[in-house]
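Hi R.,

Here's the chain you asked about this morning:
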Amino acid sequence: MPRLAAPHSAADLTEAAAETTGGGRPLDLRGPEARNLEPRPVDALHSGGLELSNLSGYFIVVLLLVVCGLIHASNRVDRRETSMDIEATRAKLGVAIAEQERLKLELATLQDPENLRMASQAVGMDARPKVIDLAPEATP
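And the predicted structure, written out as tokens:
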């Protein structure tokens, strides 16, 4: 019996059935002759590539989808954490800007000449200093 590869089309199936039955008539796959067919070996290499079973192919696709899903989920978690960190930093920035404005106002108040004069009078300092002339003593 010749060694056959797995058929790829209906014509190949009909040709393989004719060779198996030995006659020129087509094989009835629903009749009693279908039970007498022997399993045919399938070549490992066909059409230029390595043939994988359907189950392993599906497994690889599912595994790839799971890996992509995990990467996507971890990226979303990282983006959420980064977003929360940014919001916390913005809140701290708002507090720091308000503090800086308060300090600028306080500095301007302390440097105001009128405010300095009032503060010096409050602690008992005279606004006009007394000038004492220290002239050398005349010697007779």
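The chain has three helices and two strands.

Let me know if you need anything else.
M.
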